[in-house]
Every structure is written in structure tokens, then in C-alpha cells.
Amino acid sequence: MDVNGITFSYDGNVDRLHNVQTTIQHGKITTIIGPNGCGKSTLLNVMSSNGKPRKGEVILDGKAIARYRPVELARRLAVVHQQNEAPDDLTVERLIRFGRMPHKTMFSSNKQEDEEAVEWAIACTNLEQRRFRTLDQLSGGERQRVWIAMALAQRTPILFLDEPTTYLDMFYQLEIMELIQRLNQAYGLTIVMVLHDINQALRYSDVIIAMKEGRILASGHPQEVLTSELIEEVYDVQVLIRRDPEAGLYIVPMQAVLRPL
Amino acid sequence: MANINSTPAAVQVSNVDREDTHRVYHRQERRRLWSFIAVLVLLTGVMLYSAMTGSLHVGVTQLLQGLWTGTDAQVNVVRDLRLPRIIIAVMAGAGLAVAGVLFQAVMKNPLADSGVIGISSGAALVSLIAVTVFPALYFWMPVFSFFGGALACLMVYGFSWRSGLHPVRLILIGVAVNAIFSGLGQSFNYRGSYAVTSLNQVTTSTLSMKKWVDVDVMLWYGGIGLILALLVASWCNYLALQEKTARNLGLNVTLVRVLISVVAVILASTATAIAGVIVFIGLLIPHIGRQLVGSDHRWLIPFSALAGGLLLLLADTLGRTVLAPQEIPASIIMAIIGGPFLIFLIRRSDRLHGR
User: Fold this and answer.
1) C-alpha count within 13 angstroms, C-beta hemisphere, residue A94
2) Residue A86 in contact with partner chain B when CB distance is under 8 A
3) Which helix (H) or strand (E) holds B49?
4) pLDDT per position as a tens digit, B218-268
5) What CATH homologous superfamily does B83-353 map to?
6) Choosing a second label site near B199 at 20 to 30 A (CA), which of A72, A116, B190, B282?
């Protein structure tokens, strides 16, 4: 997937992305990091056809995503958004079944393929025991897994996740990150996600894209990209980077750098 | 060791858990089934009662026999005068309730009702004008009123859209649009001639004086609208998700919104063209429907059709029997029931959102 010179604006006045240029590598986990309002979610939206760029285009399999029909795109790319809404009385299984929508045509659908995809999605996300629950009976972590399962049921080669661990406690955060890693390693899914936790980004990504003020400042292998200089430039925070024999590389935020306004 | 020992217990717990959730699930399905049975029985009952009762009273066996043979003079009067009224009340109620469900799905707003947001008064105004200018085109009246409803719908969307449909703004704009069209409709009635008071039926509904020709119109347009509504039911389910989510599932969100709105306008304006402006059915019935059969539109739409038909028929039957031989129009009865219910709904949603 190639992002070619994207400039994007919500209102036509203020550009939120400036000439963004990058390539998403097939079969890798790519993480976009950056401070609040730097345009990382916006970039993910543009890359999933949820916003029309003012300039530039996103190319997937040799064709601009703006030129795909919605169902065609939904067979190649699934998205788990940061905030989700659904009726409270919807059961887990019904919601996951929504993921089969792009594979249905007006008159027919492949029932067996649908069943297999739904069962696979339920098994991956470990929701077997919850399948007849309604959404309001689930914990936050379970609910996030249901949304991931719905995206998985689309059986796309590419999966986008917008801040999948925000609002979750430590246990559920780890659970989600391990699930994402497993999906990448076992099934070769190309993953693009936005993360706030820089240590999670460091630990689970193959490629990191660091953004600030609508521009990409650096991208590449996490250990090469995440230097203390870059982090200070991106977040205005001084950090220590340490290596632990068991945990590997980790980052400790030390001090906010106050800049005169 | 502890882990190994605890494993079977954990499995047992979750099996019980699964049975438990199964039971909840089946309880919901049973409630859905019983709701459908109840509304069907009630609808049949009220239809029979309504056919039998009035200034001319006929018994059940007399009614059924007379309808079968066509030789009973009393029953023939009932067939010519009362049956059209019953069928129209049921179809109009069904149309308004389903239009409410559809508008609420598209606008993501539980308060969207074709009467409240001005769709009905837009439809009424244009059909009022059409009736005056082209009285001969009676069969095409729903087409004229469709354009009125569509105009009102466009105004509501157009003025309340600002990178999304804000719920409160949408309702306020809807109330304003409603005021404009009903004001224009009323001033049309004050043109100075006594003759025009016969047109009053379009603005303040009475279901009296309905003939089989009205039934034809109602059944054609309303029937097509209801069938289309069933076809768009699963789209409505996807719209209950976030817009972005629905789009990434491959739904052409804008197109689907337009199509569902068109179906809703067809239903609301047909009902308005034949039965006049009736508010609150599209508000009350979908709300009750969600409590009884859930938010899945594949059930909610047929249930709302049946329950809406039942409610309007009940209101009409009540209106022509309580003060007989005087009649209270069904629209007035609906306003009396609907007003307090709207207050109740708003108060309850305040509590739910904690504001």
C-alpha cells in the first residue's frame, strides 16, 4: 500500500496532513505514533477511505482506493475504529456476522464460507463463551475483542486498528497486543495501527511511523527510529532509553520540555 | 499444580455460563414471538369490533356471512362505508410507524417522526394544492404529496447537516420546517371561500367518508412502501453502527441513507395524502417495538407495521364511538396520547445519559 503525497483537510481551510508520503509493507506490523492532534488517526482514516484527500492518493494493489467500490475495498481492508457504537441488545455473534457483509451479493451468499469466517474470528478472539451475550453484558476488553472479531470476519489481508488499547487496563491491553501479534505471525495479516503507548509500539511493531503536526518525521525499524532525540522532537518529552536483559529495549519518560508559546 | 487443578472447574463454570446466556437469548426470542402473536390477535379483534360497532350494529356471524354472500343489506352498508375506513386506518398507521422507524435509523435519532419533523405537513401542503388545481388526478395524489414530503425532508437534512447530523439541531430544524408547512397549509384554507373547508381533511385528519377508491390508492402506494421497507431492513441495521464502521464494512452509506429516506417519505406522504397529518405514531410505536422485539430492523419493521396499524385503528374507533354520534378525529386522539408520551421519552433519555 502506497501513500502518495496526501494533503488533507476537514474543513477546506486548515490542512491536517501535509504531503504525507509512505509505504506500508506487506505482512508487517506498522505503528503510527505521535502526540494528540498530530494527524495519526486522520492518516488512518484517509488510508481507509473515510476522508477524501485534497491532494495525493492512496494506492492499494495498483489502484487508488478512491476508485474502489466500497465492498471491494471492504474485502481487502478492515478497520477497527477507536470509538464504536452498536445497539445494546445486539448479540456478539450477530455483530461479528456483520463482518460478512462485503461478501454478500444481492441474491446469494456462500453460507459455508460465512460460517467458517465467523467461527474463525470467534476462535481467534477467544469469544466462544460470549457468543450469545449482548454487548451491554461485556467488559471493555471483551467489547474491543468483538469489534476486532467483526473486522476479522471480513477476512481481509489488511487490518487497521485505531488506538486499540486506549481505555483498557493493563491485562486487556496485553491481551489485545498479543492477539494482534498472533494474527500477524500466524495468518500473515498486514497490520497498521495507531498507538499512544510508546513501549507497546517499540515491542510489537516491525515499522514505526512518527508523526508531528501532520507530517511524518521518521519511519523505519523501531530500534533505529525511536531515539531519545526523535522522541523529544515528537512529544516534547525527555526520555531515557534502557535495555533490560529480559524485557529488551524500553523507554522511560522523564521530563516534559516546556517551550515558550 | 494449582493451575491444572483449577482448569476443569473453570470449564464447568463457563459451560454453565453459556447455558445461562443461551437462556437469556431464548427468552428474548420468546418475547419477540409473543409480541407478534399479541399484536396480530389484537389487530384482528379491533378490526372486527370496529366493523361491528357504530350507528349501525351488526353481529360477528352476520358480518362474516354478509361479507361472504353479499346479500345482507346492513352488511353491505358496513362494507361500503366502514371497511374502507378500517383498511385505511390500518395501512396509514402501519405506514407512519414504519416511516418513523426508517427516519430514526437514517437520522440516528429516536425522536425523528414524520409528523414532528415536518415531512407530513410538507406532504399535506403539496397535496392540498394539487387537490385544488388538479382534482381529477386523484389516484396520483400520493405522488404529489411525495414531492412535498421529499422537499420537507431535504430541508431538514440540508439545514441541520453540518459535518454530521446533530440530534438536537435536527429536531429543532424539523420543528421549524413543520411550522412553515403547516402554517402555509392553514393559510391556504383561509382563502375566504367556504367551499375549501372540505379540503380540511388533508390538514386535520378525519378518516370518515373513505371509499374503496381511497383503499386502492392506499393499498398500492402503501403496500409498495411497506415491501420496500422490508427490503432495506438490514441496511438499517448497519446504520446503527458508526458511519465509519458501516463504510468500512462496504456499505455505501450516503446512497443507503438516500434510499431509506425515499422509502420513508413514500410511506409518510401516502398516509398523509389519504388520512391527513397524524403525529406521534412514528414516535410511539418504534419505541415500544424496540422494547418488545429489540432493535433488529428485520423484526422491528414488520412489528411496527402491525402495531402502528393497530394503534391508529384503535384511535379512530375510539374517536367515533366515545361521543357517538359526534366524532373526534383520530389525529386529535393521537396528539392527546402522543404529547405526554414525548415528554416521557425525553425525560427518560435525560436520565439515561445522565444530563
Assistant:
1) 19
2) yes
3) helix B2-52
4) 899 999 999 999 999 999 999 999 889 999 999 999 899 999 999 999 999
5) ABC transporter involved in vitamin B12 uptake, BtuC (1.10.3470.10)
6) B282
Grid cell listed for A133: 451475550
Identify which has the larger pLDDT, B141 or A190.
A190
Residue with cell 508487517: A28
pLDDT digits (tens, 9 = 90+) for B266-301: 999 999 988 888 888 999 999 999 989 999 999 999
Cell 379512530, residue?
B316
- The pTM for the full model equals 0.88
Cell numbers for A21: 508520503
Neighbours of B154 (CB within 10 A): 14
The size of the A-B interface in CB pairs under 8 A is: 78
Strand, helix or coil for residue A7? strand
Chain B residues within an 8 Å CB radius of A154 = 249
Q: What is the DSSP letter of A25?
A: P
B274, B312, B314, B330: which is closest to B50 by C-alpha?
Answer: B314
Residue type at position B66: G
Closest chain A residue by Cα to residue B22: A132
Question: Which residues does A161 contact at the CB level (< 8 Å), separation at least 6?
Answer: A79, A80, A148, A180, A191, A192, A193, A194
Q: By the CB < 8 Å criterion, does A138 face chain B?
A: no
Q: Please report the domains of chain A, with CATH numbers, ordered by start residue.
A: 2-256 (3.40.50.300)
> Would you say A80 and A95 are in contact if contact means Cβ atoms under 8 Å apart?
no
- Residue B25: its H or E element: helix B2-52
Residue B348 is given by DSSP the state H
Beta-strand relationship, A190-194 and A29-33 = parallel
Contact A133/B at CB under 8 A = yes
Closest residue to B249, CB basis, from A85, A99, A129: A99
Q: Which of B244, B253, B291, B295 to mutate to test binding with chain A, by most A CBs within 10 Å of its CB?
A: B244
